[in-house]
Every structure is written in C-alpha cells, then in structure tokens.
C-alpha cells in the first residue's frame, strides 16, 4: 500500500466496519416480547423476529464489493 489514497480507503472501510458493529450492539434491546418459560407453546400474539448476523454479512459483502469496484475504476 504505497498510495496514500489506498491507506485512506482502508482506514475508512475499517471505521465503517467498526461503526456498523457498534450500532448493531446498541440496537440489541432486551425483552423481545417472545414466549418465556412457563408460557403456552402457541402464543396468542405474534412475536418479533430479530435480525440475525446475516444482515451484517450482507452489508459487509456489499461494502467489499463496492471497494473492489472503486479500486478497479481508479486502476483503469
């Protein structure tokens, strides 16, 4: 990485990755309203479904693809 722009791009990508992780931790709230111990197996109200880590993986893959495209554009 001899080019200063490459360093800037790498640091920006790392900062965005860390910020995404911090936001996902901040949004993890306790008490989803789901069934607890001792409740019937068929709840009368629907429960919320939390987003899994797959959304984070899709976001990271999209960012990596975008960075790849940007690097390819500037090299050509």
Architecture overview:
The structure is a single chain. This protein is mostly helical. It is built from 2 helices and no strands. It has helices at residues 4-26, 54-75. Helix 1 (4-26) runs antiparallel to helix 2. The chain is elongated. The two termini are 17 Å apart.
Q: Tally the helices.
A: 2
Strand content: under 5%
> Can you give the helix content as a percent range?
55-70%
Q: What is the typical, i.e. mean, pLDDT?
A: 75
Q: Specify the overall morphology.
A: elongated
Which class best fits the helix and strand makeup? mainly alpha
Number of strands: 0
Radius of gyration: 20 Å
Largest sheet: none
What's the end-to-end separation, in Å?
Answer: 17 Å
Please summarize what this structure is.
The protein is mainly alpha-helical and about 80 residues long.
Notable characteristics:
single chain; 76 residues; mainly alpha; elongated
Itemize the secondary structure elements and their pairings.
Blueprint (H helix, E strand, L loop, with lengths): L3 H23 L27 H22 L1
Helix pairs in contact: 1-2
